[in-house]
Amino acid sequence: MTGAKDIKRLSRWLPVRRIFAAVVFTWTATVHGCRLQGLDIGQCNTDVANDELYRLQLMPFCGPYVRYTACLPKQAPLPPSRDHPQGRWWNHTVAHKDDWVREYYERIVGERVAIEKDKSLQKAGRDEFGARGAPVPRFSNNPDCRDAFRNYACWTNFPRCIEETGETLMTCHSACENMMIACRIPKDLWRCGPSEYLNGYSPEAPTLLSGVVTYLRDFYPGQPFAANAFEQTRRQDPLPVCTPSLDGAAAALRAPWAAAALAAALAAVLAACA
User: Fold this and answer.
1) How many domains, the chain?
2) Residues 23-76: tens digit of each pLDDT
3) For site-directed labelling of 180, which of 73, 142, 150, 200 has its Cα 20 to 30 A away?
4) What is the pLDDT of residues 116-157, one digit of tens each?
5) Is position 47 within any domain?
6) Strand arrangement of the beta sheet that strand 70-73 belongs to
7) Which residues contact 188 (CB under 8 A, 6 or more apart)?
């Protein structure tokens, strides 16, 4: 049978997998194409980096955080066919995706705040899965965590790209770890490591559930991660080698607030599981 420790371990990890299962939505202006979720369905857009008003009108929700040349949906719907009489990709637009990220963010945050403030769970000393220990408040009393979750959702859905080549840049390693810190996620639940360990930092020890050897890890949304790089100067400005890689954002391992904001994003989801 599954023991109490196994149930607790599952209860800490399941929300992480469930909440971020959809955080990276499949998704401009130069001629260079860029890739979204491994597909050639985007274009590098330099205007979002240079024109704040344009960026905010184009992406009301994510615009404040996507301050770089970004890979945006390639707005090229497919005409009607026998199998698809209404055509396809008609809603593959920046506005539609930005609104999807907003709806997703609001739903997840609302769900977590409701669970964290559930008095019956607090009184029973149990989490939403029935495991011992009331839900840890991470979203409800932590604006940095909520902000960071929003940042991460926007950065992973509108990744940075290189105008000259159309190359899509991976998520900054610091964005993941800073968010974990901001949302006070237990370090054993951090998933910011290499892909070979499914973003853990070492091989996963198996869990025995009902007599079956089970592995709980899965790839973390936003992976693979890339290390930040900085200019070899006194200012040590961040180099555009990952998303977002700009002042005041993912490169802010040296800046507490930015670290909190970034950490909060991914942590917000993981927060639910501790």
Assistant:
1) 1
2) 444 333 333 567 676 666 788 999 999 999 999 999 999 999 999 999 998 766
3) 73
4) 999 999 999 998 888 899 998 999 989 999 999 899 999 999
5) yes
6) 33-36, 39-45, 70-73
7) none
The encoded tokens of residue 54 equal: 């344009």
Query: CA-CA distance, 159 to 108, in Å (whole number)?
Result: 21
In-domain check, residue 51? yes
What is the domain range of residue 180? Answer: 4-74+91-271
Residue 80 lies in a domain: no
Q: Report pLDDT for 267.
A: 40
Write the DSSP assignment of the chain as a string of letters: ---HHHHHHHHHHHHHHHHGGGSS------S-EEEETTEEEEEEESHHHH-HHHHHHH-TTTTTT--S-EEEE---PBPP-SS-TT-B-TT-SHHHHHHHHHHHHHHHHHHHHHHHT-HHHHHHTB-TTS-BSPPP-SSTT-HHHHHHHHHHHHHHHS-BB-TTT-PBPPEEHHHHHHHHHHTT--GGG---S-GGGTTSSSPPPPEEETTEEE----PPTTPSEE---B-SSSS-PBPSSSBS-STTTTTGGG-HHHHHHHHHHHHHHHHTT-
Q: Name the band, by pLDDT with cuts 50, 70 and 90, for residue 5.
A: low
Whether 221 maps to a domain, the answer reads yes
Confidence band of 237 (pLDDT split at 50, 70, 90): confident
At 13, which amino acid appears?
W
